[in-house]
Amino acid sequence: EVQLVESGGGLVQPGGSLRLSCAASGFTFSSYAMSWVRQAPGKGLEWVSAISGSGGSTYYADSVKGRFTISRDNSKNTLYLQMNSLRAEDTAVYYCAKCSRAVPAAKAFFDYWGQGTLVTVSS
Amino acid sequence: DIQMTQSPSTLSASVGDRVTITCRASQSISSWLAWYQQKPGKAPKLLIYKASSLESGVPSRFSGSGSGTEFTLTISSLQPDDFATYYCQQYNSYSPFTFGGGTKVEIK
């Protein structure tokens, strides 16, 4: 059974940093691209970032480019999102999602999602 | 970026009704479209991929159709468990992936 468990969310001040983690199990982690998708309170879904199965290719939404860094440790079956220079508009539930293929560019959709971790940016 | 527009944004229906949700892409995405269901406080769940392929374990009352720029999600006979918000998502272009604004299916 595929399981994705996010952690690391919390309350942070504007301009601060936070690192999210996503522990994966139930599939060959290195064979699939992974992604982060967020949802602001009461709003829709917004794709944030993706990384290929090898970790060699990364992709970002314009809204987070230069501030967020996605990475993965295939030896630990764990996905990360380092978030710097946080803004109030980054407040959201952050979901880790498994892509259906090894490379996001190969027409990959999101077939499994974690339960999410809440990030609140406020003074 | 490819924009995804869903309609309606809210839909009121009764158990047993046939429900149709529409998703329109700002440019052709072939059949690279997925549909997700989300219940309050829960993660999205994949229902349909490649516009019309039913994900394993999803009830057959759900179906998807369309290609190019126009897509539909149909629930043939609405069940109590189906009251939720539904999102379409294009994956023709991976940077960025884009979602529709969502359609909330409410009890009439």
Helix/strand layout:
The complex is a heterodimer of chains A (123) and B (108).
Chain A: E1 3-7, E2 10-12, E3 18-25, E4 34-39, E5 45-51, E6 58-60, E7 68-73, E8 78-83, E9 92-99, E10 110-113, E11 117-121
Parallel strand pairs in A: 2-11
Antiparallel strand pairs in A: 1-3, 3-8, 4-5, 4-9, 5-6, 7-8, 9-10, 9-11
Chain B: E1 4-7, E2 10-13, E3 19-25, E4 33-38, E5 45-49, E6 53-54, E7 62-67, E8 70-75, E9 85-90, E10 98-99, E11 103-107
Parallel strand pairs in B: 2-11
Antiparallel strand pairs in B: 1-3, 3-8, 4-5, 4-9, 5-6, 7-8, 9-10, 9-11
General description of the model:
The complex is a heterodimer of chains A (123) and B (108). Chain A has strands spanning 3-7, 10-12, 18-25, 34-39, 45-51, 58-60, 68-73, 78-83, 92-99, 110-113, 117-121. Chain A is an all-beta fold and 123 residues long. In chain A, strands 2, 4, 5, 6, 9, 10 and 11 form a seven-stranded mixed sheet that branches. In chain A, a hairpin with a 6-residue loop joins strand 5 and strand 6 (58-60). The model of chain A has no long low-confidence stretch (mean pLDDT 96). With 108 residues, chain B is an all-beta fold. In chain B, the strands form two sheets. In chain B, strands 2, 4, 5, 6, 9, 10 and 11 form a seven-stranded mixed sheet that branches. Chain B has a four-stranded antiparallel sheet with strand order 1-3-8-7, with no helix packed on it. Chain B is globular. Chain B starts with a strand and ends with a strand. The mean pLDDT of chain B is 96. The chains are: A mainly beta (123), B mainly beta (108). Chain A binds chain B through residues 35, 37, 44-47, 50, 59-62, 95, 100, 104-105, 107-116, and chain B through 32, 34, 36, 38, 42-46, 49, 55, 87, 89, 91-92, 94-102.
